[in-house]
Amino acid sequence: MLSSTTDEVEAMEATEQPAISSHVDEAACKAYYFWLRLVFGGFVVTLGLIGNILTIMIMRKQKTKTTTMLALTYLAIADFCVLVIYGSMNLISPILDLVNNRSVAFKIKLFIARCLIQPSQSFNLVSVYITVIVIWQRYVGVCLPTKAKTYVSLRIVKVQVVCVVIGSVLLYLPSFSIDCFFPEMMHFDLRSTAIHAGFTIFYDLILSYTISYIIPIISLVTMSFGLVRGLRNMKFQGDNKQKTKKEMTFSLVVIVIVVVICQSFAPIRRILRWKYPSYKMAIRCGGDLFYFGPIEVLFVMINSSCNFFILVVCARGFRGKLLALVKRSPAVGPAIDRTNDSSGTRTTAFVDA
Prior knowledge:
- This protein has about 350 residues and is an all-alpha fold.
- It has a single domain (about 5-185, about 195-325), classed as Rhodopsin 7-helix transmembrane proteins (Rhopdopsin 7-helix transmembrane proteins, Up-down Bundle).
- The protein is built from 15 helices and no strands.
- It has helices at about 5-15, 25-60, 65-95, 100-115, 115-145, 150, 155-180, 190, 195-235, 240-260, 265-275, 280, 295-305, 305-315, 315-325.
- Helix 5 packs antiparallel against helix 10 (about 240-260).
- The relative contact order is 0.17.
- It comes from Capitella teleta.
- GO terms for molecular function: G protein-coupled receptor activity.
- This is G-protein coupled receptors family 1 profile domain-containing protein.
- It is found in: Membrane.
- Its main location: membrane.
C-alpha cells in the first residue's frame, strides 16, 4: 500500500530535480532507477503475470471445486490486476525519464500519481484480504473442524470476496475523487487548515492504516500461529494425504510471512516521513532515502508475484497439477484435499498438491 498520493507526487517531483550535491553521481542514480524499476521490476511483473495465469488455469481445471480453490482463484485474479496496474506505474516512470520532453513526462507522472495510486491501493487491499480469506479456509479446517459447516462454503467465499471488493472501493473512493478531480484541494495551504488536518489524521492515518494494514496483518499472523500449532498437534501416520496436507499448510504459512514483509514498507515509509521533515530532499539523488524510493512498489509487486512459486516449491500436489497442465495429461500429483468442499461436511478446501 502506497503511503499517500502526496508521497508519490513528491517522489516523482524528486526524480525531476537535480542531485542535492554537485559531488553526487547523477548517472549512477539514473542507472539505479533504470535497472531496479525497469529491468528487475519488469522481470518480476512478467513472472508474476505468468504465474497467476497458470494458477487460474490449474484451479479451473479441477473437477471438484472447493472453497479454498475458489479463494485461490480469486486471489490469483486480484494479484494479476495488482501486477498490471503497479507494473504499469513502475515501468512508465523510468521509461518517461528517457524522453527528452521533461514537461510532458512530468505531467504524465503527475497524472499517474493523482489518478492511479488510489485504484492501485484498492486492488492491493483486495489481494491482501482475499489472502486472509484463503488462510481462513485452512484455519477452519485445521483448528476448527467442527465449525466448518457453519463458516465455510462456496457461497460464503463468494460473498466475502464481493464484500472485500466493495469495501476497498468505498475506502479509497473519497481520496480518489479529491486527488484526481479536485487536485487543488491537496494544496499545502489547504492541507494545513485544522479541518483538513483532522480529515487527514482520521482518514489517511487511522482509518486507512487500520483497515489496510493492522487488521489484515494481525488476522494473518494470528491464524498462522494457529496453523503451526495445529500442525504440531497432528499425528501423521506417513500416508500421502497427511504429507500433502502438511505441505500445503506450510506453504500457506510461508505466504503469510511474505505478505507481512512486503506490506510493511508502507508504514515504514510513513515513519521515515516523520523522521525526515525534508522528505522531498531526502529522496532526491544523493539523499538518505534515495535508494528506498522505489522499494515499496517493488515489494508490492513481489508479493503479488510469488504465491504461485511458493505453491510450486512447497506443495507437491500443486507441482503435479502444473506438470499435468504443461503436458496436457491427467494430473499425477497427490489427490486434492477435499476437507472444505462445497457441501460443508468437512472443511479445509485446498489443493494439497
